[in-house]
Amino acid sequence: MCNGQLMIKGGRGVRTARKKTWGIVFLCLMMIVALAGCKESASVDNKGNPSAADDKKPFTFTYFNAGTSKKNIEANQTKIGKIFEEQTGVNVKMEFLVGDINTKIGTMIASGQYPDVLVPDIAIDKVLDAKAFIPLNDLIDKHAPNLKKLYGPYLEQLKAKDGNIYFLPFGVNHGYIPNPDIDQGAFWIQRRVLKESGYPKIKTLDEYFDLIAKYKEKHPETDGKPTIGFTALTYDWRFFVISNPPAHLAGYPNDGEVIVDMKTHEAKVYGNGEYTKRWLKKLNEINAAGLFDKEAFVANYDEYLAKIASGRVLGFFDYGWQVNQALNSLLQAGNDDLRYMPLPIVFDKNIKDQYIDPPSFASNRGIGITVSAKDPVRIIKYFDNMAKEENQKLMTWGIKGETYEVDEKGRFYRTPEQIKKTSDEQFREQFGFSYFEWYWPRGNGLFSDGNAWEPRRQPEVAQASYTEGDKQILAAYGAKVFSDLFAKPDERPWYPAWSAPIKQGSPAQIYQQKKQDLQRKYFPKLVLDPPSKFDKNWKEYVKEYNKLDIKAFEDEITKYVKMKVEQSKK
Amino acid sequence: MEIEKHIKTVTTAPVAVESNLSKPKSIWKKIVQQKTLIFMSFPFLIWLFIFKYLPLWGWTIAFQDYRPGLPFSEQEWVGWKHFRFLFQDEAFFRVLRNTLAMSIINLVLGFVTAITLAILLNELRNGKFKRIVQTISYMPHFLSWVVAASIISYALSLENGIVNIVLQKLNVIDEPILWLGVGEYFWGIIGVSEVWKNLGWNTIIYLAAIAMIDPEQYEAAEIDGASRLQRIFYITLPSLKPTIVILLIMNLGNILETGFEPQYLLGNPMNLDYSENLDIFVLKYGIAMGNFALATAAGIFKTVVSFIFLFSANYIAKRLGQARLF
């Protein structure tokens, strides 16, 4: 510093004038840049005049989807988007999440600048808190008859406390058809185990593990490595895969962390109850018998999938959507014996299983128009056009003769070539299925002509995709599709209770986090310690559990369940 | 030493000259004289202000039930509520213990191994071998923790893990050990992993410092009959002392920053009690729950602790007459 000062002093007479000018120019530039920055962020408010009359005039709105990561695209580059553009003159600039959802949405909120249309996924509470969505009631009333028809009976339920509808959830129910393939929870068992015992009909947890134990004793190794009797997924937030089975085994669907009484509609946690104890005790037993995967509490999600894909695992509990990747790679490997069969296992013979989701309508996610939208009327009209039944078919089934066929009875089906084509990711992107089949105003269930809303739920489509091995094992159990083995779901208007909105930082939310921490700490001990220690560990665990604010959580869920039941009566 | 003295003479001289010149002149005159410099420093001061001081305003969040999107005037003030939540939470102290323990282990191991390796490398006569060792040892530094954690967890796994295989072959253990499944081992695993990953990198600065030592000192010592070890203890180490002290002070300021990635990636339900550190706690109860106020409160706590550590270390160094940061 001192040196520098001296130097300038020395050369002062010669250089000061030029230096001064440069210094000032530089400073001015800085100021301009700073001012420009301020100005831009200040002009947030840019609501234009809604154009109502001229409907087909070219118009583009922006769409941001925080629920999934895909290639950013303009809608008219896909076949479906192009058709919509021809119908309405509207194009959509679609952008998808990169990185962390809370950060991304948080930045939007902080800057006050939103895309025209936003799908905030799990961050929806923040968006609503920030009042970033405009109310849709009047828009729907005036401009969207088809939307009104599609959401018809549910419009009342969608209203927030102030009576406004701020967003439209996806998959509003129209009739119900279960998925023929199990993408929900089930106890999976390797087909070679069933095959060797001559396809026995098993129902209880004891039978399930007995079968596995018998098989493992005979075949201790698979491909030169030890056979694993039963593994479990415990990684990070996916921990629920090991904490949920007690409810399923007791004959309840996946309501999250609670069991809801069918009569009183009271929600009760089961993490500290008999069901959980029974489940963990069984795991503890099979661990002592050498059937439980010792690494189950250490492995991450990828390691778990790799283990299943290796074909060394005889059984596991999981939700289909989480293990699809591993199951598909087994399917492609072509050895049918190493693939898995989903079974509705329960504690006792007299329990009716409820693995298949009841008709559900998760109304805590959705799509909304933001305060930054330039022309909400054109947007709602775009949604409305989409809500027409023929366009809903376009979004899920595609184009007749190209991606589906219709038989003489009016049933939709897909030829094997079409099934192959429509499951190819590149084709799905070009056609637009990837971009339009979810995350837009959409129905679910059955169309008015009786066809399934989604092709994968149409039994004809599911059956056409079955391999010889699939057909063989289904025949052995006297079923046409995999869901035939499972009981029909009872009606639960509140389902799923886990979609209850829980306020951030509230005691109920802190309970959830603490409960998970506690279970992550105690489950390994309960399962892996020698059976003699089980009761002591269990007592300790329950003592810690009961210190949590269980009531706050139960009250919150019960309130939600009762509200849902009331709404369904209307 | 020689160089240091040299620098001192260079820097002190002009100051004396300048103070003589400017003594009678007023401060205004001085400003006018140095206006170009002052102008030139403006952009950087503005930058400093915007990016280092304005964000401090965000600390107010810690005293509110902050809700994003609402204007400042509509936020609800709650006083010390979030700090109380932190300090009344049992988990917080466990997390703090883990953070401090891992930090100290890393600090000690990091210093000892890096200095040892630097001295050993310096003693090598074979330049090629030296370069190879250095390259190999600093390669892991460039691995991302995601990759490194996969390597570590694979090396420690039950069936194929090289650690278990080697220990079994050497008859140290009978049964393979589930290393990541025993909480008590976790700090050790992290310590060793950090050493493996950063050893070569940390060595560089010491090697540079050693290179500054005047070779004449060694020659003189050799003539006086000092052995190799004596040369290390009486010349190399004392010359390294200022570097060591400065680095120690700087690292003490980061005592609550154990890093986040290794603990997050290697942590699992079985070692949770020992692996969870402050940053993971903040992620779970603050950011993941959208409770930015709590996250900010924890951040303030961290800053305060770091400040205390930094200043006390600096003060101690000053009292002991050692090199110091400020």
Relevant terms:
heterodimer; A: 570 residues; alpha/beta; five-stranded mixed β-sheet; four-stranded mixed β-sheet; 24 helices; globular; disordered N terminus; B: 326 residues; mainly alpha; 15 helices; 2 strands; 70% helix
Inertia-based shape of chain B: flat
Distance between the termini of chain B: 20 Å
The stretches of 5 or more residues of chain A where confidence is low (pLDDT under 50) are 1-17, 33-53
Amount of helix of chain A: 40-55%
C-alpha end-to-end distance of chain A: 79 Å
How big a fraction of the residues of chain A is strand? Answer: 5-15%
Structure, explained:
Chain A has 570 residues and is of the alpha/beta class. Helices cover 45% and strands 11% of the residues of chain A. The radius of gyration of chain A is 29 Å and the shape is globular. The relative contact order of chain A is 0.14. Residues 1-20 of chain B have low confidence and may be disordered. Helices cover 70% and strands 1% of the residues of chain B. The relative contact order of chain B is 0.11. By secondary structure, chain B is mainly α. The chains are: A alpha/beta (570), B mainly alpha (326). Chains A and B meet through helix 1, helix 2, helix 4, helix 5 and strand 8 of A and helix 1, helix 3 and helix 14 of B.
What's the short version?
The complex is a heterodimer of chains A (570) and B (326). Chain A has 24 helices and 17 strands.
Write the layout of secondary structure elements.
The complex is a heterodimer of chains A (570) and B (326).
Chain A: H1 2-10, H2 12-42, E1 59-65, E2 73-74, H3 79-88, E3 90-96, H4 101-111, E4 117-119, H5 124-129, H6 137-143, H7 145-151, E5 170-174, E6 185-190, H8 191-196, H9 205-218, E7 221-222, E8 225-226, E9 228-231, H10 240-243, H11 245-249, E10 258-260, E11 267-269, H12 274-288, H13 301-309, E12 313-319, H14 320-333, E13 340-343, E14 368-369, H15 376-386, H16 389-396, E15 405-406, E16 412-413, H17 416-422, H18 425-431, H19 433-436, E17 442-445, H20 459-464, H21 468-476, H22 507-528, H23 534-546, H24 550-569
Parallel strand pairs in A: 1-3, 1-4, 5-17, 9-12
Antiparallel strand pairs in A: 2-3, 4-14, 6-12, 6-13, 7-8, 10-11, 15-16
Helix pairs in contact in A: 1-2, 7-15, 12-22, 13-14, 22-23, 22-24
Chain B: H1 2-22, H2 27-33, H3 35-53, E1 64-65, E2 76-77, H4 81-88, H5 90-123, H6 127-138, H7 145-155, H8 162-169, H9 186-211, H10 215-223, H11 228-252, H12 261-266, H13 272-275, H14 278-287, H15 292-319
Antiparallel strand pairs in B: 1-2
